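Quick one: structure tokens for this chain, please?
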Amino acid sequence: MKDPNRGRLTTWQATPRPAGRAAAAAATPAPERTAAAPSPSPSPQESSEEDKWRELARVTREKVEEAKTRVSRLESEARKLENDFYAWDDGQYRDNVIKPAWDKKREELETAREELETAEKALADLPEKARKAGALPGWIRE
């Protein structure tokens, strides 16, 4: 079945307004004078909740960045100690000085990676936690 209105061009034509101020006033009713509704401002409790969530989001993002920086730094230090271990000719120095330092850096690196994982999980869980608490999504955005 074909649509009979398909392909037709619709047009609109404005109706002319009466000229002059008196004619315009007569044509349009005067708006009622009412007190302008004040724009809704957040209550002090809402504002403090928003501040709390914004601060929590900022701190969580900072923890992730700090953990990433620490992991990166420890990776480069561990890599340097590994290179020193294999490059050093003196077995005594290598086994008694470099190897313990390298082992310690690897342990620190493992701890830092766990902290990074925990911080990233906290950041990933933040939107759901905020949603359940009734926080608005914009409160936790950057």
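Confidence is low (pLDDT under 50) at residues 33-39.
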